[in-house]
Write a structure and sequence with these properties.
The chain is mostly beta strands and 124 residues long. Helix content is 10%, strand content 44%. The protein contains one helix and seven strands, in the order αβββββββ. Strands 1, 2, 3, 4, 5, 6 and 7 form a seven-stranded antiparallel beta sheet that branches. A hairpin with an 8-residue loop joins β4 and β5. The radius of gyration is 14 Å and the shape is globular.
Length: 124
C-alpha cells in the first residue's frame, strides 16, 4: 500500500473488523469516484463521509494506491450497491466504534487523522 503507515494500519483494521457486526467505522475523504465498467470518466463525489459496517459495506479491497469497496449510499435503496474508489492520498480521517446498538455520536475512537490531507473541492 502506497500510503502513510498509520493509514495502512487503520485501513487494515477496518478490513479485518467489518465481519463483526458490532464494529462501525466512519471514513472521511476529500472525494470518492464511482467505479463503472462502461464509463471512462467516473462520477466524482466531493466530501466523502462513509459509515462502514457489515451491513453497509462489502468487497473492500486495499490496492496499491486506493481502496475500492461496494457501499450502500442510500438507506432507502437497500439493494443498490455502488462500487467506489478512494485514493489513499484523499483519506483524512478514520474513526471506529464498537457497539451493540446504534452508534453513539460521542463514542468514536480515532484510528487515523491527517488534517493536511483535508482539502476543499475546486470551485467552478
Amino acid at each position: 500500500m502506497n500510503c502513510p503507515a498509520p493509514l495502512a494500519v487503520a485501513l487494515q483494521a477496518v478490513a479485518a473488523g467489518l465481519s463483526d457486526a458490532s464494529n462501525h467505522y466512519f471514513l472521511k475523504a476529500n472525494y470518492y469516484d464511482h467505479v463503472e465498467d462502461d464509463d471512462d470518466d467516473p462520477a466524482r463525489w466531493w466530501l466523502a463521509v462513509m459509515w462502514l459496517n457489515e451491513e453497509t459495506t462489502r468487497n473492500l479491497e486495499l490496492g496499491a494506491d486506493e481502496l475500492q469497496l461496494d457501499v450502500l449510499l442510500d438507506g432507502r435503496r437497500l439493494t443498490d450497491w455502488t462500487r467506489v474508489s478512494i485514493p489513499y492520498s484523499e483519506v483524512w480521517d478514520v474513526l471506529h466504534q464498537r457497539t451493540k446498538g446504534s452508534p453513539n455520536p460521542n463514542g468514536w475512537a480515532t484510528l487515523y487523522y491527517d488534517h493536511a490531507a483535508m482539502r476543499m473541492p475546486p470551485v467552478g
